[in-house]
């Protein structure tokens, strides 16, 4: 019999909540996590706003001696994973044979970007022999997966996806595939990003990807609104515990949802711009529906990639229409990036979490800052106020620089 | 700089720079066994010693440092020049 994959644990640290409960409360209330950058003096930059995690204390999760050796990205993922494992009721002793069947896939767009910048600064200012011996381990994206395997005794498949803003959606899809083919029973899957540093803000800004609404941070991320002018960089992480269904049932685990569909495609068009018409995105969505064995009409909610860039939101809208036909105008579509900013590599995991909670509670969080309709974006974007409506099946989209398109489908258990 | 001053600075450095538990630091404490400082931590320690005391400690000499007290010895020697 085909192995099925369910979600049994959730965790997150993000700009509007440092755990699942507070995040979900804020998301339903339509809270913006965007403000002026506090991590460094951004006053000289063209973009001086971001969605930061306020007052994050890694020592709530990690011993001080260890925490100081890690990049902020690693700390975020560690914290989210700690929460998710506790939520799932999973813990392994070092010699537990079940630990050999538990693995990790982490996704990140860039990995330890802050450490990268600091390392280069140190080298230029103080010389090669002042570069930290931890510089490399802090930078590499995969280290977060290694770290949680060390700390939580997860000795099964352990890997990393690096597909820009689709990274953690890929991590979740790939982790499910690992369970389906029988190589593991439990997978920690998710991702994160900690990009709020001068280099990354300058780089994304130069690529003309970021909103410059510096004087009005809370209204800067406005997906699908006619006045949108770019995305707002966010930081944080989210982790899902994926588990083979019989394994979860066998131990009496709480089951949030089943991961039923995973679709991928490449735009094959441009390094940053989406293919006009959204053909690539549409193929990923259709592939996810096919994988789930459902038609578009069965989808009750779409958590959009919805970055608040001019190109993404109109193209994604076109792609949804291609796949969903008339149903496109009936299915609620929202972008929670309007509140959390864009967690880049962490976005897919956080937005999977949104879909799962929407299924659990029958509540769809809104797209905030939606004021002026754009003729090219004419769907139901759940403007400004959360909606109470039963959700049995939800889809989330994640698209990354390079033309990576990923869609996931979650279904009520 | 007298030995007591070096010892005090050494303790602060181990707490501030390496994140070690102040309560565990004695002059007889072994870095590897007692304080769980790994090979990367040793490199951090050497860099911190060099920065704090303005001395230079080549890798060959560093190999002789197993305890906190021995690190103090090396720094004292270097300071005397």
Descriptive keywords:
A: 413 residues, alpha/beta, Peroxisomal Thiolase, Chain A, domain 1, 10-stranded mixed sheet, two-stranded antiparallel sheet, 13 helices, 33% helix, B: 81 residues, mainly alpha, Non-ribosomal Peptide Synthetase Peptidyl Carrier Protein, Chain A, 4 helices
Can you describe what's shown?
The complex is a heterodimer of chains A (413) and B (81). Chain A is α/β, with parallel strands linked by helices and 413 residues long. Chain A has two domains: 5-250, Thiolase/Chalcone synthase (Peroxisomal Thiolase, Chain A, domain 1); 263-411, Peroxisomal Thiolase, Chain A, domain 1 (3-Layer(aba) Sandwich). Helix content of chain A is 33%, strand content 19%. Chain A has helices spanning 20-29, 64-67, 72-88, 113-126, 135-139, 143-152, 167-180, 198-206, 245-250, 279-292, 310-324, 337-340, 347-361; strands at residues 5-13, 34-36, 49-51, 102-107, 158-161, 186-193, 236-244, 257-266, 301-303, 333-334, 363-364, 387-388, 393-400, 404-411. In chain A, strand 13 (393-400) and strand 14 form a beta hairpin. In chain A, helix 3 (72-88) packs across helix 6. Chain A is globular and about 60 Å long. The two termini of chain A are 18 Å apart. By secondary structure, chain B is mostly helical. Chain B has one domain: ACP-like (Non-ribosomal Peptide Synthetase Peptidyl Carrier Protein, Chain A), CATH 1.10.1200. Helix content of chain B is 57%, strand content 0%. Chain B contains four helices and no strands. Chain B has helices at residues 3-16, 39-53, 59-62, 68-80. In chain B, helix 1 crosses helix 2 and helix 1 (3-16) packs across helix 4. Classes of the chains: A alpha/beta (413), B mainly alpha (81). Chain A binds chain B through residues 63-69, 129-130, 132-134, 137, and chain B through 18-21, 36, 40, 43-44, 47.
């Amino acid at each position: 019999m085909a192995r099925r994959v369910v979600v049994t644990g959730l965790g997150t640290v993000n700009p509007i909540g440092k755990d699942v409960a507070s995040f979900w409360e804020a998301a339903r209330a339509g809270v913006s996590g965007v403000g002026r950058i506090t991590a460094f003096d951004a006053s000289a930059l063209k973009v001086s706003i971001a969605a930061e995690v306020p007052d994050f204390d890694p020592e709530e999760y990690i011993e001080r001696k260890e925490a100081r050796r890690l990049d902020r990205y690693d700390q975020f993922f560690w914290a989210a994973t700690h929460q998710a494992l506790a939520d799932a009721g999973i813990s392994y002793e070092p010699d537990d044979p079940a630990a050999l069947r538990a693995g990790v896939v982490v996704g990140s767009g860039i990995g330890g970007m802050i450490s990268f910048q600091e390392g280069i600064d140190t080298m230029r200012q103080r010389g090669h022999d002042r570069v930290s011996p931890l510089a490399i381990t802090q930078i590499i994206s995969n280290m977060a997966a290694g770290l949680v395997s060390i700390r939580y005794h997860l000795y099964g498949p352990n890997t990393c996806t690096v597909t820009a803003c689709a990274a953690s959606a890929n991590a979740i899809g790939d982790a499910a595939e690992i369970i389906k083919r029988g190589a593991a029973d439990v997978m920690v899957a998710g991702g994160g990003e900690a990009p709020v540093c001068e280099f990354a803000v300058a780089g994304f800004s130069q690529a003309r990807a970021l909103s410059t609404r510096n004087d009005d941070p809370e209204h800067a991320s406005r997906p699908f609104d006619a006045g949108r002018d770019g995305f707002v960089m966010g930081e944080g992480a989210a982790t899902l515990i994926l588990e083979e269904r019989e394994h979860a049932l066998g131990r009496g685990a709480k089951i949030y949802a089943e991961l039923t569909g995973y679709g991928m495609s490449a735009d094959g068009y441009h390094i940053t711009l989406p293919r006009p018409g959204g053909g690539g995105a549409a193929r990923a969505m259709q592939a996810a529906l096919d994988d789930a064995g459902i038609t578009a009409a069965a989808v009750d909610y779409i958590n959009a990639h919805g970055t608040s860039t001019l190109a993404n939101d109109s193209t994604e809208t076109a792609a949804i229409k291609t796949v969903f036909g008339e149903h496109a105008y009936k299915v609620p579509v929202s972008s929670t990036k309007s509140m959390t900013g864009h967690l880049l590599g962490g976005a897919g995991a956080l937005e999977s979490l949104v879909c799962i909670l929407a299924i659990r509670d029958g509540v769809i969080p809104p797209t905030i800052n939606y004021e002026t309709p754009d003729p090219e974006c004419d769907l139901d974007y759940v403007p400004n106020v959360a909606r109470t409506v039963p959700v049995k099946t939800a889809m989330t989209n994640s698209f990354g620089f390079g033309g990576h398109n990923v869609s996931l489908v979650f279904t009520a258990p | 700089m007298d030995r007591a001053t070096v010892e005090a600075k050494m303790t602060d450095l181990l707490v501030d720079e390496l994140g070690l538990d102040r309560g565990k630091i004695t002059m007889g404490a072994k870095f590897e066994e007692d304080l769980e400082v790994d090979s990367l931590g040793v490199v951090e320690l050497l860099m911190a010693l060099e920065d704090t005391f303005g001395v230079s400690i080549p890798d060959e000499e560093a190999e002789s440092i197993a305890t906190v007290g021995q690190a103090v010895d090396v720094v004292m020697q270097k300071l005397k020049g």
